[in-house]
Design a protein that fits this description.
This protein has helices at residues 14-24, 41-48, 64-76, 102-127, 153-173, 191-194, 200-204, 216-227; strands at 4-9, 28-34, 54-58, 84-87, 136-140, 179-185, 238-241. With 255 residues, the chain is an alpha/beta fold. The structure holds nicotinamide-adenine-dinucleotide (NAD).
């Protein structure tokens, strides 16, 4: 039997890149699907040092035609129907909601929520064409699935929706043998988050019970575990990968 095929969106950098690498190094062939294609398949193979087959394809997850074309290209390449889908691509706009443009609001919801829906729908449709499937989807949420973050109203709204979509999709796709779960990362050090503040690690480590920020590999390792057969009865669940950060209640200092 060949490797399982995993499609990872937003995998050219950051957390998605680490997830794609971890899946490739744990027996999956991988489709790196991103809006941009700065790194080629041979770059990935060279840097990852594993024997997985890697393909880099462009997709805009918020665009229905682009998502269908991605799955058509996978078929044209002669690859198997994907077994694993990681809906990781997302975008974020900072600023007070009174100043937010409708365009920024719509773009955030389109990429983060509609993109997750479109990719999930197409994945499930293609899986439906093969029998006895055992698919797994992981949607990338956030601590703000449940908690409101300041100046991130569109992003917060989108991640709350991702968690409920995870539950709704798990209800409907379970009969097809597809498990759908969500990972909610805490403060994870990436190029993007480091650029947000002068010292990302010093800002977030003291707030995190495990007293450090997370690495992209912390998230990737959780994703690999969640799509694996050992987690075969887990569906509709959200797992926080945050060192305990967003389990903390607001509590008065006077205690
Ligand atoms: N980094 C963190 O601390 C953190 C915390 C909580 C949740 N998350 C979530 O983890 C995921 C990855 O975060 P990151 O920090 O690595 O993000 P990032 O911004 O570094 O990377 C996002 C990737 O998605 C791609 N992308 C954006 N729009 C796309 C589109 N329309 N179609 C296809 N690809 C698109 C980008 O090109 C990029 O490669 C996101 O879902 C994010 O919300 C991250």
């Amino acid at each position: 039997m060949g490797n399982r095929l995993a499609v990872v969106t937003g995998a050219q950098r950051g957390i998605g890149l680490a997830i794609a690498r971890a899946l490739a190094c744990s027996g999956h062939d991988v489709v790196v699907a991103d809006l941009h294609a700065q790194n080629s398949a041979s770059w990935f193979r060279e840097h990852w040092g594993c024997s997985a087959r890697v393909h880099c394809l462009k997709v805009d997850v918020s665009d229905e035609g682009s998502v269908c074309s991605l799955f058509d290209q996978i078929q044209t390449l002669g690859l198997s129907v994907p077994d694993v889908l990681i809906n990781n691509a997302a975008t974020q706009v900072w600023g007070p909601l009174v100043d937010m443009s409708l365009e920024d609001w719509n773009r955030t919801l389109s990429v983060n929520v509609t993109g997750t829906f479109l990719m999930t729908r197409e994945f499930a449709r293609r899986q439906g064409e093969v029998s006895a499937t055992k698919g797994a989807i992981v949607n990338m949420g956030s601590g703000c699935n449940h908690l409101a973050f300041p100046d991130l109203s569109a992003y917060v709204s989108s991640k709350g929706a991702v968690e409920m979509f995870t539950k709704a999709a798990s209800l409907e796709l379970g009969k097809q043998g597809i498990r759908v779960n969500c990972i909610a990362p805490g403060a994870i050090e990436t190029d993007r988050t480091q650029a947000e503040t002068d010292n990302y690690s010093d800002s977030w480590s003291p707030l995190t019970p495990l007293n450090r920020v997370g690495t992209v590999n912390d998230v990737a390792n959780a994703v690999v575990a969640l799509v694996g057969d050992n987690m075969g009865f887990v569906s509709g669940e959200t797992i926080r990968v945050d060192g305990g950060l967003f389990g903390r209640a607001v509590w008065p200092d006077s205690y």
